[in-house]
Amino acid sequence: MSRKISRLFTPPRVILLGYIIIIFIGACLLSLPIASTGSRCSFIDSIFTSTSGICVTGLIVKDTPHYFTKFGKTILLILIQLGGLGYMTIASLLFIVLKKRLSIRQTTVTEEAMGYPFGGIGKFILQVVKFTIGFELFGALVLTLCFWGIGFNWANAIFKGVFHSVSAFCNAGFALFSDSLAQFICEPWIIFTMSGLFIVGGLGFIVIREIHQRIRKERTSFTLHTKLVLLSTIVLLGIGTILILAIEWKGCFANLPVWCKLQASFFQSATPRTAGFQVVRVGEYRPATRLISLILMFVGASPGGTGGGIKTTTIVLILMSIYAYFRGKKDINGFGRSIDSQFVNRAFIIASVSILIVGGGMLILCLSESKSFIALLFEEISAFGTVGLSVGSAINPACSLSYDFTNLGKVVIILTMLAGRVGSLTIGTAFIHAVGRETFKLPKESVLTG
Question: Which residues pair with 338 in a beta bridge?
Fold first, then answer.
């Protein structure tokens, strides 16, 4: 019987089930009268908000700063922290603190959830928690001083500082201002602290650890994974900043000082990679800027971090594979290393499954919602990339476009956010039963392509 249960509750299914349970608990708490300032939150909106919190997305159907009480905002903050670290990380940390050994099954599930297949997961979890606390405390301190400096009392400044620091590092996109961060567009301390937090959070804990080890001279060089992550992050940030600055110079940045245009374009280039905060409303973008944001949202952050998307390394491996194919090379090389073909195949599978998920969601949204295609696509990809950017509601400008959706449309976004946070491969292996090792091969035959 235990063997049957073990086969039924595979690591991917345990991860998915865990998220569903936490979403349900969070929705129940957000539905309580004490969580809202006005009318009680409907269950579908509670589910939506809870999912957006645990999946660190930031799409909202309720005006967060005004609708939720301090209790509701605290519940949301806990969901964001759980989602950013991963609930399995928290559960495993409790076992470590209580000095209990992780079972093989717990270790396997945790490694799967964190994308850490290298062993020594216990030590890695402690490092992850230390890094998270360190960055979030630093961010909270700076932001608290900033908010106090612009007129908030200490209690309010501290809560806002902690909330935005956690939300930023976890790439959640939830803000305690109805315009996100638009009113601080020319406040460099707030802009660069927030962008620094979500860029670091999106790098992934494996990369953060290697950088820390390099600073302490515990290693002499980075692994290929870290090199690819750092290179792709710099390239995406650089290209995105230049393109957005050029396109919106006389667009939504027209009335800003030059230095403010520069920092705003940098922020708006960084935020689509799953952060979700905005200093300029996406609805004010020119079409070309929306397209750039769509691409950045789909790519997302890096593996093992707090962000979503198909990940930077996935797109890098796909591009490297395409380049190698046209060069007539069988091996894919980078930084003096050859990359195993299984990782390239994995990259193509992740991208393909992700396109199928987004495509399926778009089909239903196009049938159920009377909105423009580009607006629906932006919302769907934002949900899958766990970003939180949106063209905005036509009824309630303080909320995402999902506010205008039917219940069916909201369910589609909820499922898309969950799929984006859990990951395409985890979703696939949770629903498709894996077979054992093949003992024979069938005859080969050619199939025409292209």
Answer: 333
The CB density around residue 153, as the number of other CB atoms within 10 Å, is 9
Residue 436 lies in a domain: no
Q: Let me know if residue 435 belongs to a domain.
A: no
Cβ proximity of 245 and 253 under 8 Å? yes
* Helix H or strand E encompassing 202: helix 188-203
Residue with tokens 């002499």: 220
- Rounded distance between C-alpha atoms, residue 296 and residue 285, angstroms: 15
Strand-pairing partners, residue 332, are 339
CB 271 within 8 A of CB 293: no
**Rounded-to-integer distance, Cα 352 and Cα 360, Å:** 12
What are the residues whose beta carbons fall under 8 Å from the beta carbon of 426, sequence distance 6 or more?
12, 15, 16, 112
Q: Which domain holds residue 377?
A: 2-430
For residue 1, pLDDT over 50 is answered with: no
- pLDDT single digits (tens) 118-170: 556 677 788 888 899 999 999 999 999 999 999 999 999 999 999 999 999 99
> Tens digit of pLDDT for each residue in 76-128?
999 999 888 875 666 566 555 555 565 555 566 555 555 655 556 677 788 88
49-53: which pairs have CB atoms within 8 A and are 24 or more residues apart? 49/76, 50/22, 50/23, 50/24, 50/25, 50/26, 50/79, 51/23, 51/414, 51/417, 51/418, 52/174, 52/388, 52/417, 53/26, 53/79, 53/80, 53/83, 53/172, 53/174
Q: How many CB atoms lie within 10 A of CB 131?
A: 17
Q: Is residue 448 part of a domain?
A: no
For helices 373-384 and 341-368, give the axis angle rounded to 10 degrees. 140
Could you give the number of structural domains in the chain? 1
On whether residue 69 sits in a domain, the answer given is yes
Query: In the predicted model, what is the mean pLDDT of residues 19-23?
Result: 91
How many angstroms separate the Cα of 119 from the Cα of each of 85, 91, 108, 202, 223? 18, 18, 10, 22, 16
Question: Rounded to whole angstroms, how far apart are CA atoms 264 and 245?
Answer: 8
Per-residue pLDDT of 336-373, as tens digits, reads: 888 888 889 989 999 999 999 999 999 999 999 999 99
